[in-house]
Amino acid sequence: MKIVKFETFPLSIAYSQVEHSSRVHRGGVSDVVVKLTTDNGLIGWGESCSGADTASIVAALNAMAPFVLGQDPWSSEAIAREVFRTGLWDYRAMTGNYAFAGIDMALWDLCGKDCGQPLYRLFGGALRSEIDYFCYLAQGTPESLRRQCAAAVKRGYSCFYLKVGIDGAAEEKMLEAIRAAVGPRGKIRIDANEAWSVPEAVHWLTRWHAAFGIDFAEAPVKAFPLSLMKELRQRVPVALCANEGLERQSDTVQMIASGAADVLCFSSYWVGSLRRFHTLSQMAHLYDQKVCKHTHGEFGIAAAAAHHILLTLPNATDGAQQTASVLADDVVAGGLPVATSPRWGLIEAPGLGIEIDAEKLQRYHEAFRRDGQFLPYAA
Fold this sequence. Notes:
Elements: E1 3-20, E2 25-38, E3 43-48, H1 54-64, H2 76-86, H3 93-115, H4 119-122, E4 130-132, E5 135-136, H5 142-154, E6 159-163, H6 168-182, E7 187-191, H7 198-212, E8 214-218, H8 226-235, E9 239-242, H9 249-258, E10 263-266, H10 268-271, H11 274-286, E11 290-293, H12 300-312, E12 343-345, H13 358-371
Parallel strand pairs: 5-6, 6-7, 7-8, 8-9, 9-10, 10-11
Antiparallel strand pairs: 1-2, 2-3, 4-12
């Protein structure tokens, strides 16, 4: 089995609500879908994260194509080595990882289809029968937060996630509304996207944990130097989650070994492949750290790939991150279970176990060609 065709489709799909944080303000997701076709007719699908600029990811994928065409999909590690070492993408690690992650997903999709097995079985089999996902709340008035939470509680959500770090006084009122709406057992997680200094983080986390019970705080301060997170971890009663600062394999290894975080929030985008994500998550387990699957904003292809890995991890948290519930549409035929529910069970179809809606693929490809990407600084 050899790969004979390499295609890329940059897509733009709108959110049903604006994503607003201390770092981004955007109205949807623009990613690049990768389609690999083999000489025996199998098709593998993947999704590359756009990061800051979708066009640069398309260019990177085109540069990687010669290392993929003509190769056996079962040689994914050899392909990755050629891309990063011979192709020199290890000198542009983040762009390389964001782009290659989509190729890697498509290679694994082909392998699963070739042997007739769902992806999670190729990574050691499932350790759980389902994964719990979070409710992604939109910043707004306290009444808006109450409405969002009340609707989510009815759908069975137990983990609620709010971006913070913009206006502490306003966010305190939002958190008060969230706690009132979700009750004492609902988990509240916050993400400051590194907006705070250490003193600011100490102030807000100590205050909010006492008042509302914060389950964990994601990226409260800059990840590097590691001394910032380590100092904060000693001064607050809240579990800390690292996200920014896990941009490469070496960064993730440093964070794990440092003990600066209780939870790692990352995905194959950060480290370039599903195998690396799986391996580094297992390493975190040896250090008694949890892993919360991250989303940059993603379509159902990347969501399905990560879901397979989560099923196999001994240290996966509940409240895994997803954007399916806030996307206006998707290219996965029939959508994903987490578009309307917090839980997603085993996927038993081969490979990624999803089908792509060809009409929607073309529609949102045309939307990208017509309107461009959803910029991270414009709704």
